[in-house]
Amino acid sequence: MNKNNISRIMARIDAMNRRLGTHKALVLFFLLFTAVAEIPGPGHPDLKAYGADIPPVLQPFPLPIFFPVRTGTSSALPSSKIAPLDPIFDFDGVPGWVQNHPLTNAMGVSIPKFEILVIKGTRIDGKAVEIPPGGLYFDASPSRGEIPMTGSSDYFLGKRYFFVDYRTTIRVRRNVTVDPTHWTGVGNHLYRLAAPPIPKVVPNPVVLWKTYDGVSIRPWAFTQRWEKSGGRLTDQTPMTYLQGVIASVSQKPPSIHYRSLSGTSISREWWASRKVFFGDAAPGRVFTTSDGIVRIGAISSSPSGPAVDIQILPKGEKSETFRLEPQTTPGMPEDAQGRSRMIARSGRLAVVLWPKDPIRGKKARLWVYADVREWKTNAPFEDLSGWNYFPIACPIAHHIGGMIYNDRPIRLRPGRVVPVFGGYARLTVVSIHSGTVKFRVGSRNRWTPVLSKRGNIDSVFGEGRAVHGILNTLNQTEANLAGHVTFRQN
């Protein structure tokens, strides 16, 4: 962050000190950090490598950039730029799925969880309805961002998993144009121009954004800077890693040419289906699981170098020994480099240290996880053939959703029940007549009422951040909702 931005933030703190007193001001400032930004984390990009006078990414707050910065594109998602067309919204969700179920993490924060089903890009093809790749997805959508080393967990296809670790990147695209008619992808974020700047009225353009699963919070300050402002134009203070350096503006047709445009993305995550232990463990403690054995070795509480030795013997594999060292950087547990020194993984076992002062005396506070799975972006989810996983990163690189989508077309013929997501949901077309489709969605032995839709079966089931984001996107792009919002009585 440059000196001007730091000066602005310190001036705000001083002003709050005068109005509220030092203690209240600091509390308010901390709440502002955690509620709006959820506090970013480390990585030390070499910005000189970009060959630009203006760095493409600034840290949102006076801390280092805690995630690696990379140029170029990241993994794309089929049909990501397609929004549901005139969709049915059923906020009750798929019968039997998780809806607004709170889970409390080890930090004492209770976060409601939602399981969402989205159907989009569908069309009538003769006597069947066709869903394109990426047109049908399950979304585990928590109500706020989550990070490892907090004891966070979520539901995927009805099963609870614990968040062990992840790999996040700030992606930068160079020389890219954003206009009102197309979605432009950077990382797993999509940008679209709502309005160019109006001289002496609106100093900066208005840019819409959304994630691949639909999260789109309004209002949101997308950070924009001008490559050559000459003091005449206003730069927005960095709030997130969604940033752009503006090179030029066109009014007719309206478009913004960005010298650089950034977003966040996740390449892989590790989740565990079993939490074996959480608490204070002494040297010699042994945890025996069906996936192998974890032994707690020597623990040093020396102020010069506290550490704990961990031995992991995965079932059927060679043992590994790890030395975990608590990190004191201000960005823990977002700090990707620091986190790597506090997490041990081998086979399907993992040990994770408590993020703040985990070693006290002769004991270490830690988690032991079993059945740890690595989920790669755009790779098959678990053992489900035809269904891929895609994690979603928020504007400051926290996990805010996990999609499971179809990687091949699906055809629905009247009278046939089609299981999806390994049977966690079912779809059936009742009839197709004169361009109108009657269909139902269910799970196990429960179904929605018969729904009727003309031209397609695009629809959204459930609530959560992504659903509200889809509503925002459709509203901002002036899509016609046509009153297709249903409230079922269970």
What structural keywords apply?
Tick-borne Encephalitis virus Glycoprotein, domain 1, mainly beta, 34 strands, 490 residues, 9-stranded mixed β-sheet, 4 helices, 10-stranded mixed β-sheet, disordered N terminus, 44% strand, flat
Rounded to an integer, what's the Rg over CA atoms? 24 Å
Q: Unreliable segments (pLDDT under 50, ≥5 consecutive)?
A: 1-52, 479-490
CATH architecture of the domain at 267-376: Sandwich
The count of helical stretches stands at 4
Structural class: mainly beta
First-last Cα distance: 52 Å
Shape: flat
* CATH class annotation of the domain at 267-376: Mainly Beta
Annotated CATH topology of the domain at 267-376: Tick-borne Encephalitis virus Glycoprotein, domain 1
Indicate the mean pLDDT.
86
Beta-strand percent range:
35-45%
What is the percent of helical residues? 10-25%
| DSSP E strands, number | 34
* Biggest β-sheet strands, sense, barrel: 10 strands, mixed
Layout of secondary structure:
Layout: H1 3-20, H2 22-37, E1 69-71, E2 88-90, E3 99-104, E4 110-119, E5 123-125, E6 128-131, E7 136-140, E8 153-156, E9 159-178, E10 184-186, E11 189-195, E12 206-211, E13 223-226, E14 243-251, E15 254-281, E16 286-289, E17 292-300, E18 307-314, E19 320-324, H3 336-340, E20 343-346, E21 349-353, E22 359-360, E23 363-376, E24 379-380, E25 387-393, E26 399-406, E27 410-412, E28 417-420, E29 425-433, E30 436-443, E31 446-447, E32 451-454, E33 459-461, H4 465-476, E34 485-486
Parallel strand pairs: 1-9, 2-33, 2-34, 13-14
Antiparallel strand pairs: 3-4, 4-7, 4-33, 5-6, 6-27, 7-26, 8-9, 9-15, 10-11, 11-12, 14-15, 15-23, 16-17, 17-18, 18-19, 20-21, 21-23, 22-23, 24-25, 25-26, 28-29, 29-30, 30-31, 30-32
Helix pairs in contact: 1-2
